[in-house]
Design a protein that fits this description.
Length: about 300
């Protein structure tokens, strides 16, 4: 008897309108999943890579075997500033849907801007507050306001129990968590660790813009973060000095910011800080702006202002 031919997973259903989304969510709920099953959502702008697919795998785990996993694909104009890459942002819906077939997605919501913003640019928006005024917010004014506005709208439309976000966008993840907490949104937010290429480059849809030379130069970001983490025993100043040294010695990289911050507030840590911190970097390789981050454990580092006792 010949071996059975493996079956190819069916692609997820794709809906484009609010009405189609409502019908798809309602029919799933009425089809009889167990009361303990959950709906998990992964919000993306498409051009999916292995980092996105890992988010969907984790969403499948969070939702349970008969829960529902929804992936949204929407290039949100509100989070792009003047001169940024909205028009050239990569779009490949058919390719994205094909990739999602193997990782447990049940439904794809891929609206156009007029579906998400039927009255044009919204008059009322979510403000990221002081979290949106530093680092990414300072470099890209209004960016996090645009992110939070669309995230809240999609949460209302999809009605998930769990929403999963990548830890590569650390400030975005913090802002979403604060929004959910501060505005009493009944959604659990889960962060998923950064997925990296074998050479250490953090996976990003924007990596597709890099030439070979630019991609090589971009590796300085992850090298700098590792060097900073390795210098944790010397305290915050040593962490920043080690990371800065790598970036300053790298050609082809223009640094936007390098910061060591409290992972719950994004405030810079003081020189005598002890505990868990987050080392953040944003830089351009050619015309492409990339971000990355690394957890740093300063729990055992000595206070540089303390002198050893006699």
């Amino acid at each position: 008897m010949s071996a059975a031919t493996p079956t190819t997973p069916a692609p997820p259903a794709v809906v484009r309108s609010r009405e189609q989304l409502h019908d798809a969510l309602t029919s799933w709920t009425l089809s009889g999943p167990e009361p303990t099953d959950q709906r998990a959502v992964v919000m993306t702008m498409g051009a999916l890579h292995d980092g996105h697919l890992e988010l969907v795998r984790r969403a499948r785990e969070a939702a349970g075997p008969t829960g529902q996993v929804v992936v949204t694909i929407f290039v949100n104009p509100l989070q792009f500033g003047a001169g940024e890459d909205l028009d050239r942002y990569p779009r490949d819906l058919d390719g994205d849907v094909a990739k999602l077939a193997s990782v447990g997605a049940d439904l794809v919501f891929a609206p156009t801007p007029d579906v998400v913003y039927p009255d044009g640019d919204p008059i009322v928006r979510v403000s990221a507050g002081r979290v949106g005024e530093v680092l990414e917010g300072e470099s890209r004014p209004g960016h996090l306001d645009g992110v939070l506005t669309v995230v809240l709208k999609l949460m209302h439309l999809v009605r998930p129990d769990v929403a999963l976000f990548g830890e590569k966008d650390a400030q975005q993840l913090l802002a979403v968590r604060r929004m959910v907490r501060d505005l009493d949104v009944d959604v659990e937010v889960l962060g998923v660790p950064i997925v990296r290429e074998p050479d250490g480059l953090a996976m990003s849809s924007r990596n597709a813009y890099l030439s070979d030379n630019e991609r090589s130069a971009a590796l300085a970001l992850s090298r700098a973060l590792r060097a900073g983490a390795d210098a944790a025993d010397g305290g915050p100043q040593a962490v920043l000095a080690a990371a800065s040294g790598i970036l300053e010695g790298a050609g082809g990289v223009e640094v936007d910011y390098l910061a060591l911050v409290d992972p719950t507030t994004v405030d810079p840590v003081p020189a005598d800080f002890r505990g868990s911190a987050l080392l953040l970097v944003a830089a351009r390789a050619g015309a492409t702006r990339l971000i990355d981050n690394q957890a740093v454990d300063l729990a055992g580092s000595a206070n540089p202002q303390e002198k050893p006792s006699d």
